[in-house]
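Re: that chain you flagged

S.,

Sorry for the slow reply, it's been a week of failed gels. I finally had a moment to sit down with the sequence you sent. For the record, here it is as I used it:
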Amino acid sequence: MWSRALSRTSAAARGGCLVRRALGATAATRSFGALASSAARRAVPVYAPPSGPEGPREEGATAGQPIWPSGWHDSLQYHFFFEGLFVHARVFLTPSLEEHCVWIYDHNVGKVEELISTGERLKEHGTDTLDLRGSRFSVHDGPGGGAVVLKDTSGKTELEVKFTNKHVYSWLPAGFSGSDAVIHRPDMDLELTFRGKELKGKGYSKRYYGEYGPHWGYRFIQSSHLPDNKFLWTADATFRIGEPEAKYNYFKLLDGETGELVQAPSVDTYQQDCAGYAYIDGVKYVAEIEPLGQWQHDYKGGDTNSRMQLRYCKLKLSKGDGSKPLEGYAFNDDASEPSK
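Prediction finished late last night. Pasting the structure tokens below so you have them in one place:
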């Protein structure tokens, strides 16, 4: 059976994390702080969950995203799963840089194709919810959903993904308080128009903002492409390494039809390079990934020096009770500090 309530088994689970660095210069931090404070005053809605990942708060599906930026570090990412095609889009900001990218994995081609990766700063046109626009890339993320649009070099729309929220969760990352929330949408409904194709699918989005640095690292596995209407997201992270650091692990499995959220206590979940593990009610869950394609990028500017290794993968999710594993596709995100 793939339905079970939250339990608090005390398995001794610990995992390693990669190290990542993203720190703006002092002057840049001061100027960015003023900008973020101004943005925060305008940002509607305000996400202020009362607790961490073990107590996720379900927000209404009509909730929109706060305007950009909303913190010292701000990151917005989308994972769009379709039959035979995966699309990833991300906007990433620290005090010393801002970049955005879109890449795809087409099963018929069998490799990653980068559509755009640029340090062009996007302009926020929203007054209450997010509406970012650049010369080729734009994202509108308002009440209930929105759209990601990419134009080609001639100015024609090359890719458009419209998304509608279903379940929306927020909680506080380890070491954070107040309104520095992380926002997860694991089962968005999608409509894609791309190079003559029109497809429907399911997708995930994560938004997080706050003072995560100067050093941090994580591993992350996520899937909106599992049978039985199941949606997985799990992480193993450490923030503010050595300052003192804050350990942050979670494992979530949503039944999109019933709304039941199966989750592990933070101490009972961890990750290795190609697997995530969790213990729930004494049963061991294992999410095993097999990478199919990789997009790797170094975010470098000022004092920011962060390597992203993003992979599209096959996924097998096993439950140690003898039930049949769930198989599909997943996104895997690792971040580390590059060698000097």
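What I noticed first: The chain has one helix and 23 strands.

Talk soon,
D.
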